[in-house]
Amino acid sequence: MSRLSVVAAAVLATAACGSSRRAAPPGDGGATAGNPRDGAAVAPADGGTAVVASPSRPALSADEVAALPGRILAAAGREGAYRVIVLDPAHPGPGRTLTPAGGSWFPAPTPVAMALHTIDAGDVHTEQLVRLGAGPDDATALGAASARVRAPTTTADGKVIVVESDARSFRDLYRIDPRTGAASRLTDDPAGNFEPSLSPDGKRVAFTSSRDGDAEIYVMDLGGGHLQRLTAFHRDDWGAAWSPDGAWIAFVSDREGGPRIFLVHPDGTGARHLHDGDAAGEELAPTWSPDGRRVAYTVSTRDGASEVWIADVAAATATRLSAPGARDEAPAWSPDGAHLVYASTRDRRIDLWIARADGTAESRLTDTPEEEWIPRWLTGAP
């Protein structure tokens, strides 16, 4: 597995659980070389950042680039010293740094601008959830720092925040007050509770727990009541992601051998594969489109590559979005659902690419000596 997969999973989304799944430390793994760079500029470079064409597909047009909405957060830097930058996809140029110096910073998988700050001082490792502002001086800590603070989830307005932390136990879920930063414990089980995903209305939370011997998906009210187990296959189920309309929860399961994405209703009924085709490899990290009709995800193939795929939920069909042969991972939808941004190692380092959701065109967004990865496409940003 590449460094993209390992760190994005371990630091930001997947603190794996159960006897066969434990959180990997940030920085494990290593990215491998992709294909040599071969593209033509579409938008002018500004300080080392440009939109350039893929060698295998047409580029996004200049007008299309200029109309791209929102802002993109990403981790930028080198291993052990990443910062969070904000990029304007419609005006390619150098990213603006949002985080202070020191440690490494990774954008959180939330609809509002947040980051996870990791610090290693000798043998002591700490992680902290931080709300981002307009610049490095505006970052505000949320909740207590601990050895593990992971998988933050928020409502669209950021008024409800839940994280996974080992502050008082092996791993439990905590609600963070966005005004004061105070934390309220939601779960208390020695086997561990992981990877919270808030329902769109902020009233319920889906999560993974090992309380019954293996990793399963559960749902409970935000206050901790009305706990319901959704999966019971005595294999590992993890990575719950609530659909925007609240009708489905996507999750990853190894019940059939390798990891594959499934869907289930929040009441535990209607469990099915995300798509009806054979899996092209290990399916990971489901990410819903804003309208809830599609799910983007990463497929890790047997030859060591990884690809971005998109599934149509109603049709139960899946289509490969990214070109084969590289490591294309961590897709994030544009606010209007027309494009995705993802990280790729096709040019022997990690850069960001933007593709149409129908796969008909793609362009490189970043092209610097640094690594840019873990993109988050927000409606607005500081």
Give the low-confidence spans.
1-53
First CA to last CA: what distance? Answer: 33 Å
C-alpha-based Rg, rounded: 19 Å
Give the total of domains.
1
Fraction of residues in helices? under 10%
* CATH architecture level-2 label: 6 Propeller
Total of helices: 2
- What is the number of beta strands? 30
Indicate the mean pLDDT.
Answer: 86
Strand content: 35-45%
CATH topology grouping = Neuraminidase
Task: Give a verbal description of the structure.
- By secondary structure, the chain is mainly β.
- The protein has one domain (3-95, 197-378): 6 Propeller (Neuraminidase).
- It is 4% helix and 43% strand.
- The protein has helices spanning 3-13, 62-66; strands at residues 41-46, 49-53, 71-78, 81-87, 96-97, 104-107, 114-121, 124-131, 140-146, 149-154, 161-165, 172-176, 183-185, 193-198, 204-209, 216-221, 228-229, 237-242, 249-253, 260-264, 272-273, 282-288, 294-300, 306-312, 317-320, 328-333, 339-344, 351-356, 362-364, 371-378.
- A hairpin with a 6-residue loop joins strand 11 (161-165) and strand 12 (172-176).
- The longest helix has 11 residues, at 3-13.
- Mean pLDDT is 86; it is low at 1-53.
